[in-house]
Structures are given as structure tokens and as C-alpha cells.
Amino acid sequence: MYFVRRILFAIPLLLVISALAFLLVHLAPGGPFDGERQPASPEIERNLKAKYHLDEPIWKQYARYLGDLLHGDFGASLKYRNHSVNDIIAQGLPVSMTLGGLAFAFATVVGVPLGFFTAAWRGRWPDHLGSFFAVLAVCVPSFVVAPALILIFAMKLKWFPVALWETPWHMVLPSIALGSYFAGKVARIMREGMLTAAQSEFVTAARAKGLTETMLLLKHAFRIALLPVVSYSGPMLADLLTGSFIVENIFQIPGIGVFLVNSSLNRDYTVVVGLSLLYAMLLIALNLAVDFAYTWLDPRVKYE
Amino acid sequence: MTFIRRACRIFRRARFLFCLPSCVLVFGCTRQEPPADLTIINRYEPESLDPAIIVAQADMRIVLALFEGLTRLEPVKARAVPGLAAVWDISPDGKTYTFHLRTNLVWSTSEPITSADVVYSWLRELDPQTASRYAGQLYYLKNAEAFNTGKITNALLVGVRALDKFTVRVELNHPTPFFLDICAMPLTCVVPRQTVEQYGDHWLNARPLPVSGAYELVAWRLNDKVRLKKNPRYWDAANTQSEIVDILPVGSPSTALNLYERGQVDIVWNKELIPPELLDVLLQRPDFHSFPSLATYFVRFNVTRKPFDDPRVRRALALAVDKERIVKKITRAGEIPTSHLVPPGTANYHSPDGLGYDPALARKLLAEAGYPGGKGFPHFEYLFNAAPGADVNQNIAIELQQMWRDELGIDMELRQVETQVFWGILSQIDYELASSDWIGDYNDANTFLGMFLTGDGNNETGWSNPRYDELVHAGNETTDLKQREKLFQQAETILIRDDLPIVPLYIYVGINYFDTNKIAGIWENMLDDHPLNYIRKIKN
Fold this sequence. Notes:
The structure holds two protein chains of two kinds.
Chain A: H1 2-27, H2 42-51, H3 58-70, H4 85-120, H5 125-139, H6 142-156, H7 168-199, H8 201-209, H9 213-251, H10 257-265, H11 269-297
Helix pairs in contact in A: 1-11, 4-5, 4-7, 4-9, 5-7, 6-7, 6-9, 7-9, 8-9, 9-10, 9-11, 10-11
Chain B: H1 3-13, H2 16-27, E1 38-41, H3 57-66, E2 71-73, E3 80-82, E4 85-90, E5 96-101, H4 115-126, H5 144-148, E6 160-164, E7 167-171, H6 179-182, H7 193-199, E8 215-221, E9 225-230, E10 244-248, H8 253-261, E11 267-268, H9 279-282, E12 288-301, H10 311-319, H11 323-331, E13 336-337, H12 359-368, E14 380-385, H13 392-408, E15 412-417, H14 419-427, E16 433-439, H15 446-449, H16 466-477, H17 481-499, E17 502-513, E18 519-520, E19 536-537
Helix pairs in contact in B: 10-12, 16-17
């Protein structure tokens, strides 16, 4: 019931987002067809604008856009005139999601055990070493990590390709570059979660019952310690999707990050609004999934 | 229990976490494609591959591989040579061209290409519904402007028609010595009528896409690559050197350089893809080729705004610019400082000299205009946009500001705007000074001088000089090339020495990088035009 309500609430939210994005991008100075080469006559400019209905009042353009949207048509790109926004999304989104998914996997596969071990050996050398790397990963931004990885592993050691997105070998360095920051964050959050869980009453009770330290940490504390990580996953996935632009640019990955940024610079109205809506939908869906995972992990949590 | 043993035990129990990335990898996008014979970085993702609507040079490079016009450019000096047309006759008055097509032409899908296709393509270019921004290049045709602006709707009145299946008759308004170069430009390329009529705006998504050029379109993946395959039905297919060509859009200069260094790409042909910090070092290498190009960087004045409506003020500012300093200190790629607009090496033309560097004379002129020592000179702004990848525009702006302050005592403010906004302001002539450049469309002085005719859309200065218009038009009316050169020289003198709505700064230099020991078939010419079908990897 709770989740159905959440989904229904998403619809007016998306409407507001589309209206805001539409209005803001139209308010910005400059238009999509301003260019270096002026057409030989103003009629050409007029025809171009009329073709894409840019000469109509804004509310009419928005109504037309909503009408198309109801048919699942996000419109044609004004800059890439042979492609529709649906094309751009269909080609770019799977790539960005794969990159985001791999980075997420890297972040959890590295971050969760790192957090676990630094908490389990708190105060001793695994903790110091692990925490050092975690904090380092958080502090160094992706546009420093990426070139460093390329320099060492692609240029000098030649283990991986330098850029592009063709085979699984191409996917390793970008995923690490994008995921390293989040791995560090996840490790820190996991560590805090473990330390808190280790203090809780049911862990003390289990220890009193005679459970070994390993079983204790892994079976009882781990599941509870994972909760803060799970709730961080929502904003983390959002950051992964939006922050992929830098990594996509450096590795020349054909995702949608570059379209999100360049479409506003190009005043490509349809792409801006379309991608804003897409990101909004993804964020809503991902946050919903995270909340669902929360109920599964922690039996104490219930939604009405 | 030791750390290692406990760790192993824990990992054994948490196996599933490691299955996750492997699953993603397996289901992720992996492509099984044969490698390309040639991989080229083209910098920008093409906005379109429709010959009628493209404007960017990056797009033109791909389009000219897919489609061809009556003529094509040869790779060494980029001169127009026979393309789809085998021969042509030009009437003595230079106004009528009769093109004879080759009789064995077919689309890549094997239908014949005839003169009706040529006429269709040209009329489509001029059709107001197509809204082509380059349609003005066909205004040399009779009634083309009237048709394109909607004044007439009968396409039969336009000066291009099919006399028979293989003959095209073109009628021009006046002799146009560079008309054959225009016939090589994408806007005149022949497009497949059936496909365009069937699919409308999405005709480029049809597979197989019928093409008239040396290569077929295999795949066009946004922001990923354009893959071309040799078209065996092209009339000159025997000379097409590479079988599969990949064209990549790469945005970051360091990525492009890394890809080149690792051998993942063969050619990088855009000078924006050179990391500016490494420019001096890289230009020493033999695989970095720089060459003067058909493009000029200059400053525009808005001559409708005080005090720039006074030619003495404009001349004063021009005389106070040390162009050598700009070229040596800021751009550093071997650009040529220039006092004239038309680049040296332009066909059939030698520019007259403009104004040199003379600060003393500049100060005198400024005093004459009523601002001795710069006193009382109103505040003004220099408009520029952020050049992608390098801060050239900004650095030049700062340098000009310094020069004018030191030599003339006037204060200039800098105003940087986004590129789209910049073009808008320029077209509305809502600035005082603006950074500008122009890349020639074809190898003739008219592509530069024609810009500053009264009312031309690319003038954007508000400048109008009837004598200049007269001279340029007269130059375009005559068939005598020497006479034409004289008339153009007189016109350019007005532009760059007397009236000066612009201050030319330097001639661009193009830079491409590829290893001449590994790649053959590329020659550096002023138009930076390199037909793909001649390029090949050298096999030893």
C-alpha cells in the first residue's frame, strides 16, 4: 500500500519537474539554431523555427510536448536532427547504467569488506591501513583517479585499453575510477555501522550465549551494519548516474552523461527536458527499491 | 585465529557478492565486431549526415565519404576534379554549365543514378521546407534565391534542370569562377530520392542506406562511432584504399592523444585535440603536421555604435595591435600574423597589404578623432566565447586589453559568454568589439570578401560601403581572372586599410597527427580536406 502510494505520488512530481525544466531552458538566452554561419535569408531561420514549433507561445509548446510524452515520444533532438530523444536514451542509457552498475559493484565489493575488516580489527594495523585507503579514496576526485589509472595501467603497464567501450577489458578502469570514491564512503559507513551494531544488546546477548566472534560479526552484526550502507545506496546510485559525466568524458564512453551536460549548452530543449525527466524517474525508482531493500534487511522496519 | 584465515572463511561465505560484478559483465554490452582498417578521430559527434542540413566541418568529412556531387576535391591540393560528372562544358560568358554524368553510376543498392537525382537533390537543398543553412551557396543559380525565400514556388524556374538522362544544365546569374568547387561541397551532393520520400526526416536510419559515394554506412552509434564500409558500386571503387573505416567523436584532448599513442587510433585530425600545455613539445615531433589553412582570426567592430562609427578610431585600434606578440605568446602553433583578411595561398589571388604596427600613428589618429591620450574615450566591451579546450579567445582578449591600455590609454572590459549566446548577440549586432574567425568554404577570395557586402548575414558589423559592394560584384561579373584579382584587391584595401570594420589578427594553422610511416594518402592542403577513399595503412 505504502509503495503504491509512493508510485502514485511520483506522477505529479514528474509533471512539475518537466514544467520546471521546460521553463528554465527556454528562459536561458540563446537558441538551439544560433550558429556561426548565418543562413542566407531570415526566411530560413523562420522555417527552421516553425518546423520545431519554436515560434509558438511557451505554454502551447509545453502542451504539445506533454501530448507527445503521453505517447512515449520524447521528441526529436534539435541539435542531432536525425535522432530522437528516445534514440539518444536507448543508445546511451544502457551504457551509463552498465558503468554505474559496475561502479556500484566495485564500491560494494571493495567497500563492504573493507569496512567490515577495519571494524573487526579496530585499533590494530588492518584498521589503520584500511581506513587510510578509504579516506584517500574519498578525498581524491574521479578526474584525478581516472588519469592516474590510465597512466599506470593503460599507458605504462598496457594491461587495459586507454579509452572507449568495446570489450569487458574496457570496462575495468572506468568502473574503478567512478567507484573509488563510493568505495571509500561505503567502507567508512560500514565501519561505523559495524561498530554501532557490535555495541547493541542482541549482539551482547549472542556473545553471552557463547557464539564465536566470527559468527557473531558475520551473522548478526553484519546484517544490521549494512542498513546505513543500504540507505546510502539511494543517493549513491543517483551520484553514480549523474557523476558519470566526468568518467565518460575521459574514457570516451558513449553514455548519456555527455548529452545531459551538452544539451543545456546547445539549448537542445527536448533533450534537456527528456533527460531531466529520465533522471527523475530513475531516482524515484531507485529510492523506492532502496526502501524496499530496507524492509527486507531489517525486520524492525515497517511502512504503513 | 589469524587475520588471513578468518578473512578466507568470511569470503567463502560471502561468495554471492562477487557473482554480482561477473553477471553484470556477462550481460553488459560486449560487441563482436571485426576491427577497422583505419580509425580516425573526428572530434565532434555529427549533428546530422544529411548533406542538405549539415554545417560543421566534422560532419562534412563523413558526408563526403557517403555522398558525392558533380565534382569532388582531389586530395593533394583540394581542387575540384570530375566526380559524378565526367566532363562539362562552360559557355563563353561563364554563366551556363552543361554537366555530362558518367553513364555507369549506381547507388550502393544498385539503382541507377541519373540527372533527375541531381536536380532533385539541388532543389531539395533550396526548398524552404528543408531550411538548409548553407542554401545561400546555391544562390548563384538563376532564381535560386527567390525559390529559397518563397518568392516563387515553381521549381522549374530554378537554373538547374535535366536535359536528358545523363545531362544537367545549370544557369548562373553571373560567371562564378569557383562554381566547380561549390559542386564538390556536401550541399550539392546527390541524395536518394526514394529513401528521402519514404522516410522523411528519418531517412538516414534506413538500412541499407543508398549512397552515391565511396563508402556505405554500416553503423552510426551516438557518441560512439560511425562505421563505414567500402561501397563496391562506387564508380571509382577500384581506387578506394581501405575496406572498413571507423570515425570516432572524442571530446577530451588527452584521451585523443592517449588513444593515438597506444595505437588504438591512426589519425587525429582536429587541432582542438592537442593538449595546449603540450603544444610546444608535440609540434617538434614529425608525426604532428601543421599547415596554414584557409581561415582567419580577426576582431569585429560594431560600426553602428559610437565611437566605433569613426574610421579613425578603428584604424587607431588596429595600428596599436602587435600581432607578432599574439602569435608568439598565445597561439604558438606557427600562425601567420596578418594585416589582410584573405589567407595567402588562396587560388588566383594575392591580398594587398593592410595596416602595420605603428603605435605612434595610432595615437595621432585617436587624438584627431577627439580622444588625445585616450581621454574621454567611452568604456567599451570586448565580447568573446570560451573556446572549447583552450583559452585562446580569453588570452587574446586580455592581450588586446593590455595593448590598447598601454599604447592608447583606453580601457576595455572583457565579456565572456556561452557559445550559443555569443552567436545570438553577434547576429543581432549587440556588441562593441567581438572576437571572430572565418573558415573559407571554398578556395576563392569571394568566400571571405563576400561576407562584408551590405546586408550579408555574416557581416554582423553593421558596415556598409557601396563602393566595396560595387567592386566585389564587378569582380564576380568578369571572367577575366586577372581583372577579377585587381577588383578584389581594391575591395579588400577598403576593408583592411581604409574603413576597417575588422582588424585581422592571424591566419589559422591546422594541425593533424598521424605517422607518415604508417599512413599514406593524406596530404596537407589549405582546406584541410582529406577524402577518405585515398587513405590507407601502409602494410609492410
